[in-house]
């Protein structure tokens, strides 16, 4: 076993590797960029080495600097995690030449999988089922058209080099083919530098089922059962689980054997994933081998009881699978599900977010709940890297119990700062296609509106709970403030609204979903009478312990999850969540709309264009500027009709999140 390894990655995967190394007594070296100097993976390592600027090209993609850091710190091996250089055969070779062990597959195995066309031909030769298609080197339009007619429609055109959903087109008729081909080639050339494509029969309503494989230096390859990853958006996985409810024992055995064949065909060593596309009739075809650890590996760990990172270290140090896994086949126990919590806005086409995590509340790990994360409350989700906040994984004896546990865990999750996809995930796991395990890879792209949902107005119970939490908080704070004053025992210091000559009344203003609620409250000490917009209710025995608030609402017992943070109250009733912004009930109208005078940067980025000048008349919704952030162009629009009073950012300038760019009169 190694005594020290360098982790050539960041975020949650680096923290994940550090946990296993700490348990095994293996020292770790973290590398970091300018943006990551105080990140959790750096704080959790035994040593940290700066490798460059914030952009990946200046740091995490600099293989030379990473190898220098490993040699300088006395590391024996490099673990690449996933992403960045994890599937870079040249980097693996360079590490080996420097006398460092690359914890992953051999570079030759990576190169065999580097081309989708070459990989498909190799798998076909090894008797692994592949989708009918064309992978030839002759890329003339007439040849590709002829092959398309032979393969049949619908078919998919795919970039031979690359991934991430780029350079892919579904073609349903011969008439569409040539235009789609040209479009796909342009996109592939721009994204990957090469415009070679391959053609494949398109499988309608396919499922994505992958098998975790492991190989050692002696040529032994095993599979550790499957994960289903059919819940995808634009070919990006959102929800993963094991086992797949679609597979029968016979199908599982057949696909597992094919996965092992695929691994042996490329002399595979260490952890990898063989991905299959599966038709509704149970026919399955090889897609690719991911020559690294996968983001969704925790579901396999929870179902098998194995630590895949420990296995990676042991196999890389020369141990044999026959010693690590003496019993075959590997048994799977219970059901595990993983979802990925991202800083992104589902209502704005999943626009990636960034900024400080002002509040980050996650469920307590344990009892079948696991968290893999790389940030904590107060950290910044930076514009330079993937905006993942954490992976939430649950495990239970069966799928219904695992789904129930996941619903409970998500209800305990709260992110304040950048927008997050937590509400989207809650709706997703309640959707019928997830409940009955019928989802296919195209479902979300076709039915996204069903999952994205529409805002649900807060219930009377939610409004009452938010008001009760505010009233309780005011009552607890009043004695503390009074104790610092000249008369700590004055009755006027109490927060019960009492005044001479009339019953006590307090006014609260809570803004929810763009709607302002003014609530009149009488009472104190957990007993209240509330009135708002023609509604009235009586609360008795309000009790607030941690995030749980219980009460009698008009003689009906109600318990909700209520958290107050960052000037707001967050209420969750088990199915829906609401954010109530606490406002001054006596603020003037001009004070309330002052924020509409400013156009701010939604995240850090660079100004690409400014469409207006000082003095220009603009209308609500008019594009006034464009900025680039996270490799995307963002259109900034005027919040109202008005006149431009001031420009505070110029083209080419880098701006921080929430910086005021344009001010209206």
Low-confidence parts lasting 5 or more residues at pLDDT below 50? 588-594
Strand content: 25-35%
Helical proportion, percent range: 25-40%
Strand order of the largest sheet: 14-13-10-11-12-15-22-20
* Radius of gyration over C-alpha positions, nearest whole angstrom: 28 Å
Number of domains: 6
The CATH topology of the largest domain:
D-amino Acid Aminotransferase, Chain A, domain 1
State the total count of DSSP E strands: 39
- Which architecture name of the largest domain does CATH use? 2-Layer Sandwich
User: Overall pLDDT, averaged?
Assistant: 91
Tally the helices: what do you get? 18
CATH superfamily of the largest domain: ATP-grasp fold, B domain
Shape: globular
Category from helices, strands and their pairing: alpha+beta
- Largest β-sheet summary: 8 strands, antiparallel
Written account of the structure:
This protein is α+β, with helices and mostly antiparallel strands and 665 residues long. Helix content is 28%, strand content 33%. The protein is globular and about 85 Å long. The chain has an eight-stranded antiparallel β-sheet, sandwiched between helices. Strands 24-25-26-27-28-29-30-31 form an eight-stranded antiparallel barrel. A five-stranded parallel β-sheet has the order 3-2-1-4-5, sandwiched between helices. About 1% of the residues have low confidence. The termini are far apart. It folds into six domains: 100 residues, Rossmann fold, CATH 3.40.50.20; 145 residues, D-amino Acid Aminotransferase, Chain A, domain 1, CATH 3.30.470.20; 70 residues, Dna Ligase, domain 1 (2-Layer Sandwich), CATH 3.30.1490.20; 115 residues, ATP-grasp fold, B domain (D-amino Acid Aminotransferase, Chain A, domain 1); 124 residues, Glycoprotein, Type 4 Pilin; 75 residues, OB fold (Dihydrolipoamide Acetyltransferase, E2P) (Beta Barrel), CATH 2.40.50.100. It contains 18 helices and 39 strands.
């Amino acid at each position: 076993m190694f005594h020290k390894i360098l982790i050539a990655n960041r975020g949650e995967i680096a923290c994940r590797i550090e946990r296993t190394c700490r348990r095994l007594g293996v020292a770790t070296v973290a590398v970091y960029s300018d943006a990551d100097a105080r990140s959790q993976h750096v704080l959790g390592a035994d040593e940290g080495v700066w490798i460059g600027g914030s952009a990946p090209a200046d740091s995490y993609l600099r293989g030379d600097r990473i190898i220098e850091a490993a040699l300088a710190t006395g590391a024996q091996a490099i673990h690449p995690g996933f992403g960045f250089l994890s599937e870079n055969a040249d980097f693996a070779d360079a590490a080996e030449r420097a006398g460092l062990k690359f914890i992953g597959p051999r570079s030759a195995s990576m190169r065999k999988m580097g081309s989708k066309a070459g990989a498909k031909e190799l798998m076909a030769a090894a008797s692994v089922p592949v989708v009918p298609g064309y992978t030839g080197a002759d890329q003339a339009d007439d040849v590709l058209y002829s092959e398309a007619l032979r393969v049949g429609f619908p078919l998919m055109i795919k970039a031979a080099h690359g991934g991430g959903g780029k350079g892919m087109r579904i073609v349903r008729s011969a008439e569409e083919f040539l235009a789609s081909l040209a479009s796909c080639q342009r996109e592939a050339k721009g994204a990957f530098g090469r415009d070679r494509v391959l053609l494949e029969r398109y499988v309608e309503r396919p499922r994505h089922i992958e098998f975790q494989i492991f190989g050692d230096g002696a040529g032994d390859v095993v599979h550790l059962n499957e994960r289903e990853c059919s819940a995808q958006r634009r070919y990006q996985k959102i929800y993963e689980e094991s086992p797949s409810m679609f597979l029968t024992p016979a199908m599982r055995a057949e696909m597992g054997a094919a996965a092992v064949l695929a691994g042996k065909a490329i002399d595979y060593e260490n952890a990898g994933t063989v991905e299959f596309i599966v038709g509704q009739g149970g026919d399955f075809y090889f897609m690719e081998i991911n020559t690294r650890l996968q983001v969704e590996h925790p579901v396999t760990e929870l179902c098998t009881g194995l630590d895949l990172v420990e296995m990676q270290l042991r196999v890389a140090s020369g141990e044999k699978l026959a010693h690590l896994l003496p019993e075959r086949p590997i048994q799977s126990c219970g059901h595990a599900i993983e979802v990925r919590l991202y800083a992104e806005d589902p209502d704005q086409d999943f626009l990636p977010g960034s900024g400080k995590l002002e509040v980050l509340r996650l469920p307590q790990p344990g009892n079948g709940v696991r968290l893999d994360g790389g940030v904590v409350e107060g950290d910044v989700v930076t514009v330079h890297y993937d905006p993942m906040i954490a992976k939430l994984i649950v495990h239970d004896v069966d799928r219904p119990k695992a789904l129930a546990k996941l619903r409970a865990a998500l209800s305990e999750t709260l992110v304040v700062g950048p927008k997050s996809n937590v509400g989207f995930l809650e709706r997703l796991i309640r959707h019928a296609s997830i409940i009955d395990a019928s989802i296919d890879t195209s479902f979300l792209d076709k039915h996204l509106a069903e999952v994205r949902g529409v805002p649900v107005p807060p219930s009377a119970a939610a409004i009452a709970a938010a008001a009760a939490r505010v009233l309780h908080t005011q009552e607890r704070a009043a004695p503390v403030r009074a104790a610092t004053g000249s008369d700590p025992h004055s009755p006027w210091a109490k927060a019960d609204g009492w005044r001479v000559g009339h019953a006590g009344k307090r006014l609260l203003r809570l803004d929810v979903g763009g709607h302002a609620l003014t609530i009149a409250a009488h009472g104190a000490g957990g007993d209240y009478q509330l009135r708002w917009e023609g509604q009235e209710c009586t609360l008795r025995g309000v009790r607030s312990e941690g995030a749980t608030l219980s009460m009698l609402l008009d003689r009906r017992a109600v318990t909700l999850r209520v958290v107050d943070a960052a000037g707001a109250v967050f209420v969750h009733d088990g199915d829906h969540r609401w954010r109530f912004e606490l406002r001054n009930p006596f603020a003037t109208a001009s004070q309330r709309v002052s924020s509409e005078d400013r156009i701010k940067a939604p995240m850090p980025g660079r100004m690409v264009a400014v469409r207006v000048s000082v003095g220009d008349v603009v209308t609500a919704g008019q594009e006034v500027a464009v900025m680039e952030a996270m490799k995307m162009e963002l259109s900034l629009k005027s919040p109202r009709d008005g006149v431009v009073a001031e420009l505070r950012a110029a083209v080419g300038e880098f701006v921080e999140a929430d910086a005021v760019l344009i001010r209206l009169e």
